[in-house]
Amino acid sequence: MQTLFDIPPTKSALLELQHKVTFLLEGYQLLEHKRELLTRLVYEKLEQYRSLKKNAEESLQSAYQCLSITHMRMGGSRLQQLALGMPVGLEASMLPRRNMGV
User: Domain for residue 37, yes or no?
Assistant: First the structure.
């Protein structure tokens, strides 16, 4: 299906359309560049993420093992009483990171 545009057949209309096409192509190239940059950044951070995830899993496994031993020795009610008086041991926050305004 052919789409018709309501554009007058003048030189100024042709120049305006050429300007719009050039602008759209530059925008497309910029978006392609951003996509490539973000893809590269994801792959660069992937190994670091995997290492941190493995470390966190090992720490959690060790913590749950210690918790289960403590639960067996002290009992659930005594452990709950101790937990109520303990301060928060871990806080996490995320820092924003910007690349090319994204």
Answer: yes
Number of domains composing the chain: 1
Q: What is the pLDDT along the chain (102 residues), one digit of tens a residue?
A: 566 778 888 999 899 999 999 999 999 999 999 999 999 988 988 989 999 999 999 999 999 999 889 888 888 888 888 878 777 777 777 777 776 665
Contacts of residue 82, Cβ cutoff 8 Å, sequence gap at least 6: 74
Is 25 part of a structural domain of the chain? yes
Q: Determine the structural domain holding residue 40 and report its residue range.
A: 13-81
Whole-angstrom distance, CA of residue 11 vs CA of residue 17 = 10
Please report which residue ranges of the chain form alpha helices under DSSP H.
11-74, 76-85
97's tokens = 């990171």
Residue 95 host element (H or E): none
